[in-house]
Amino acid sequence: MAGADAVDTQVVVVGAGPVGLMLAGELCLGGADVTVLELLDAPTTQSRASTLHARTMEILHQRDLLEGPGGFGDPLPPHEPMGHFGGLPMDLRLPSPYPGQWKVPQVRTEELLGARAVELGARIMRGYRVVGLEPYPHHIEVAAEYGGRRERFTTRYVVGCDGEDSAVRRLAGIGFPGNGAERELIRADVDGIEIRNRRFERLPKGLAIAARRGDGVTRVMVHEFGRPARASGEASSADIVEAWRNVTGEDISGGTPLWVNSFGDASRHAERYRDRRVLLAGDAAHQQMPIGGQALNLGLQDAVNLGWKLAATVVGQAPDGLLDTYHEERHAVGRRVLSHIRAQARLLLGGPEVEALRSVVGELTAYEPVRAHLAGTISGLDVRYETAAGHPLVGARLPEAQLPGSAEPFSALGLLRTGRGLLLVPARQEELRQRIADVARPWAATVDTVTALPPAEGPLTEVAAVLVRPDGHVAWAGDSPDGLDAALGRWFTPGGPRDTLPRAHPHATHAHVNGRRRNMGDLTGKTALVTGASRGMGRATAERLARDGALVAVHYATNEDAAAEVVAGIEKDGGRAFAVPAELDAPGGVHELFLGLERGLKERTGSTVLDILVNNAGVMGGVKPEDTTPDQFDRIFGVNAKAPFFIIQRALADIPDGGRIVNISSGLTRFANPDEIAYAMSKGAVEQLALHFAKALGPRGITVNSVAPGITRNGNPVFDIPEAVEAMAGLSTFNRVGEPQDVADVIAFLVSDDARWVTGSFVDASGGTLLG
Fold this sequence. Notes:
- Helices cover 32% and strands 22% of the residues.
- It is built from 18 helices and 36 strands.
- The longest helix has 26 residues, at 324-349.
- It is globular and about 95 Å long.
């Protein structure tokens, strides 16, 4: 049993689906240390959920996960204003910057949320089956099986995001009452079929739905009236072919099913979302038929409600009872949504016996108050957490507004991207603004105060200030400071003023997390590629970056055993690494490098984001200029100059804004050695890469620098000769030869946030050899 303070990680999240990844990112944003355990060895390729509703889109906007470089891109995914209630057409548009529903494949959502979680520092560990939970007064131990062995993780809290069959819920003994499935809908993505699109077409024998995507794949869904749900919950390609033929009379057996599954109208709800140090979110907390995409959205909104509260708890910034509000708020929301989904399931899957009911509901939805009410429940826009008397905004989500600024208007929702509390003060009177700011000053460590002129229209024109929780819901609003102090004390913890060092651009650097500047060497959540990392300076650099927290790709040309030794050493010391082979001077060598790199990153992080590139691989000449052949010259330039250029060119598709590139040059570009003219020429070219790429990539916040080592111990037999070492040491101001770690430490500085203002530079790492 571990001691009360001996924890491996502050929070273990079980499940790396969209909900688990969203939660991991939110926790890291709040300063928590997070480990995600996932049963699957690799991210799923099945896009079972494909609908994001308005409230979820607002949440993604709040975290800068839509149009930006780390989001869905520009333009946004396809938008559809029309949805349905139990198969009855319904206009889902309500006041929101993202009305209606947005079509995003689940694999893309997972990729986006996974990349964000890793960027913020979450560890995603795949292939782990959770088999035990052992609670203690101050922590909980999680037992998981991996590769035939059992491992234990000691943590403060465990959150089950592992689906309807949640192992966490079962092991914690949390009840899951409700009803099993009585009816089912079989669905599949089928390639190579030509059938017409259908939207909830009710036929004499059942319900048929078909929608052809832009890539030619058709999603089909079918239900046979009166057919009970299968006990196993599984379906085969033969099942959907048979059911489609029975209902529509059409034969789709000539197509290729990419995946098939069935889902029933089961409805179950966890008795509680929190049991001491165990919490549940997403489908682990509620099972429902995924009608209209509500299941995924309900789970993502669970994660955003829980994330900031649990993070504040584990970092010691939570007022008493904060974490209890997660169950209080989200259990009620879940109960209401499940009730609406059960009603929809009956309307959708019922046979002729529900036609009269469908007719009545259809008539009612023609009335605007009814339509708006149902659209609010589907979209999540009607969720209100606070029921006590107060301003009408309290408990509801912060409405989007364009706030007048000194240069141009800015988004109210955009102020929430840091994941901190927000006191927005649009009061017109300077004296009132100052009084409100004075009340909030003791909470500066956890709440940002932003003053702005009132927007031209909307509910924010009528208040002097609005206190907003990190999840975007209003905790207090008023025309004077009355009641603000109490609201701040309920949701936040007072403390000293935060570090307010400026941040250049939301995507330009990863220098600040929760307003605190990251320390040099803190590379947790970063990914790195070091070429030529099986020995010498490359090995030392890979080991240093891994010690600083980065996941390191160890490139090697031919010595697989040496690279495996580097990886094993890093993992033994608690780091993460994997080997990537490629002969850089061979045709297609750079392409081979990135195939292995991106596959390794995808398996371990869920994305191909590469934060750090160190071009270290190189070959010496060792041949007098008069004896240098064209083939030798081409090999030197191929490895030393050509490969780094094309590696950078290819890497820029994976390197995010704020990334780091370091190229290893040589002191021989400043210190003459006639036996290495070709080598020195190639390294001079490398230095030009830094100069010119730094200028080109500056707008993206990517730094590019050259490091020039001097005489550095590299395994050459000459370093075993004391007299030779003594002679070489005399060339250095420090009277010693360099060690690989000396250069690795310089590189570690250049890839850290402390070097954010250094780019295009030539860094002399020769130990003073070049001083003359």
